[in-house]
Amino acid sequence: MNWRDDLLGIFGELAWQARRTAGAIGRAIDRDPVQIVGYRGYGTADRALVLGRVLQDEGIRAPQAAQSRWRNLLATLRRIESDPLPFARVRAKLPDARDAAHAEIVADDEGFIRHWLSAPQSLTPPGWHTVALDLADPPNGQAVRTTAQVLAPAPTATFGVVSDMDDTVLQSEVTSFLRAARMVLLENALTRLPFPGVAAFYRALDRGATGAEANPIFYVSSSPWNLYDVIDGFLEAQRIPKGPLLLRDWDFGKLTEQHARHKGVVIREIFDTYPELPFLLVGDSGQEDPEIYAELVRERPGRVKAVYIRNVSTNPERSERIRALAREVAEAGSTLVLADDTLAVARHAAMHGWIASDALDEIGGEKRDDKGATGAKADAPGVDAKPAPTVVVDPDVSTDDVRG
């Protein structure tokens, strides 16, 4: 899939150069108001990762399921066109009034803010906490404020989940550049489709074996931050558990950063933040998720309970490569499951006691609904209609190859 990153990199470099040339002029004559967009981060009892961006407000409205593709296209173009405010100064403050719980953050040249905020005891009790964001030097003196959210995982959590989005949770067809571009440009948060049963499976992971574990789910994707509202809206519409949503800067000079490097850096930071928490890693076969996750298994012994890979590739050489990686993962003491079926992965999780066994009925029922078999939901076909064998390489299972 390197051709995809190379093509996007060339496009991004050209677009970025054009944007730099026109940016100052555009900001001088464009009277769109400025906004701060707060993203979801994460933290501990002592510190919080604050994420957001300062950029022009293009007035993008909340989508409707019946909205025309033309309107979806216009909204997408507005997201791409929206001009950032470079090096903006943003004041961030947790509800705690102590000096340590607030700071002034300087955005980068694309308007992004990313800052570890000292927060002694501010993120207790566990759960979601609100960070107030305030633009220090607003244009025309008009106040610009918003909030960002930060998750402090509960002590009841027995594991965390790191999940990709495209072709793992959200059907994106990234193995085809044209079909993927069509989805991004012409669909919205309410018309994008999940993989059958995935929402119920993620709710089961969140609940864990006891039903009350509140296991945190971190969504780590190479999708651009420009699509944050689309992905966030999709998760809400599909009732998929909310979690920190960690995307990639495509605006635009940083596109040379490779997919694997982006994901590897982000996931390692999550692991380092929660050194006592083991993880499940969930991805797809279309890009480099199996390679990234296998490297993490080797690098961090004992930290990865299992690697779940959705099979979206019809290339037999790719499947054989993942089988080889599965054996490497097993030798390192973990498990890799390759499947095109959510229920097969859920059965594996239930067998190991990571989700409740009675959650399988809910997952199976939602899978039937998502496929359109009951008429309860719109048809949501998988990327490949042909079922593929589920491959499990697990030190705790006597066989290496089973069907889901």
Distance between the termini: 27 Å
Please give the count of helices.
Answer: 10
Uncertain spans: 251-256, 378-387, 398-404
CATH topology of the largest domain: Rossmann fold
Give the CATH architecture of the largest domain.
3-Layer(aba) Sandwich
Report the average pLDDT across residues.
81
- Biggest beta-sheet profile: 7 strands, mixed
For the largest beta sheet, what order do the strands appear in spatially?
A: 4-3-6-7-1-2-5
Estimated radius of gyration:
21 Å
Output the structural class.
alpha/beta
| CATH hierarchy class name of the largest domain | Alpha Beta
Count of domains? 2
Helix/strand order = HEEHEEEEEEHHEHEHEHEHEHHE
Give the total of beta strands. Answer: 14
Please state the overall shape, judged from the principal axes of the Cα atoms: globular
Helix content: 25-40%
Measured by DSSP, the beta-strand proportion falls in 15-25%
Written account of the structure:
The chain has two domains: 34-149, Sandwich (Immunoglobulin-like), CATH 2.60.40; 160-393, Rossmann fold (3-Layer(aba) Sandwich), CATH 3.40.50. It is 33% helix and 22% strand. It contains ten helices and 14 strands. The strands form two sheets. It has a seven-stranded mixed β-sheet, with no helix packed on it.
